[in-house]
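Ticket 4471: requesting a sanity check on a complex prediction with NDP. Repro inputs:
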Amino acid sequence: MKYIDAVLEKTIKINPGEPEFHQAVREVLKSLEPVIQNHPEYERAGLLERLLEPERQVIFRVPWLDDQNRVQINRGFRVQFSSAIGPYKGGLRFHPTVNLGIIKFLAFEQIFKNSLTGLPIGGGKGGSDFNPRDKSDAEIMRFCQSFMTELYRHIGADTDVPAGDIGVGAREIGYLYGQYKRIRNAYEGALTGKGLSYGGSLARKEATGYGLIYFVDEMIKSKGKSFENSTVSISGSGNVAIYALEKARQLGAKVVAMSDSNGYIYDPEGIDFETVRKLKETDRERISEYVRVHAKAEYHPGSTGIWSIPCHIALPCATQNELNREAAETLVKNGCFAVGEGANMPSTPEAVEVFMQHGVLFAPGKAANAGGVAVSALEMSQNSIRASWSFEEVDSKLQDIMKNIYLNASEAARQYGLGDNLAAGANIAGFKKVADAMLAQGVV
Ligand code: NDP
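Returned structure tokens:
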């Protein structure tokens, strides 16, 4: 379609050197074609051009002192992409690979994800090229304090509410919140993923992993399959992966493989949740240490090898573009019938094509991993009314939200004659609400 092609071409031209952003935009625009065709008013309103230009992008210096009193400099980012349906909302990522293009792709995806939750939250994302690995606790704290010393002026409970992502967990959120509160002199919900003793929500830690399993469960149930007695592989061993492991096991699955960026473990007896949780959350160890405790388990260096392990359900929960065409073909050959993306954009476009061609049920990240941000929005509600809901209450709301996201994405796919294509359905359902809000608010 001419309008979409022109918008895509311009986006690539004016945002050079941002391949992940281009990839995310291309995927979304392609699936919006039938919607744009049905709504010529979107083109007249320049809606796509506006949607693709972040409302604000902040890049800042983050100076800090390491334990040897040497000055270190990192780069900080916050991309406030869209506030059409609510305050900007999206995590902070601390990882050496972070650059503007990565943050923009994540913030762009976040717009649709947040819309899909049905809650009033806009899209944003931020982070830094800081590498928390091998840093002392004091270094992490000094970095977080310096990062927040700039970030605080751009965020707030009604403006922009960051949370965690890769490299930003409970510890980092604590240091960031402490500094925010100190500078602002306000005890307000300007961050989510907070600890339970200072305004956090029960079930936030578990939300993305649990939500992923709730979504995939809906998807596979619609085809008469279930987690019960299924074999599952989960890449990564961070926040999302750990709680996907717990919930998948609770539903009767055997999780046989997990990984980190160095390698993967294979446990034919089923990976033990408590061992992984303790190793990663308490001891901050590598996943390779698992085999010291479980003699029958194996450790293999090289993280992508995890996709060569036969499984019925594959859950990529590590990072973008971690699962390529070759890995997808191997999974299909080995009998994999469903893929659920816990990470953001973990499957390359070629891998997704392989899944579609072979009828593998595919749950796209922006729908399947929306449980984290959904419970973050519930944390914002609890902070606003100064209340604290029980674990069961939050978990039950999370289940309802994930079920609705599944229903809305599958309904949108059906409505536009796209069959079981949940990736396109999620894009369409997420887009419609944002587009209508933008039209109603005029040229802003
Ligand atoms: P964590 O930092 O807790 O964990 C990330 C995990 O992925 C670690 O085990 C890390 O290993 C591994 N990893 C990172 N890069 C690679 C790689 N190139 N190959 C293999 N493994 C790798 O992050 P989260 O669990 O929070 O986030 C994981 C994904 O889920 C991200 O894509 C994130 O954007 C997405 N997500 C997270 C949400 C949340 O609520 N936390 C919400 C929605 C999406 P290592 O220790 O070696 O680096």
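Notes from triage: The domain at 206-368 is CATH 3.40.50.720 (Rossmann fold). Leaving this open until the requester confirms.
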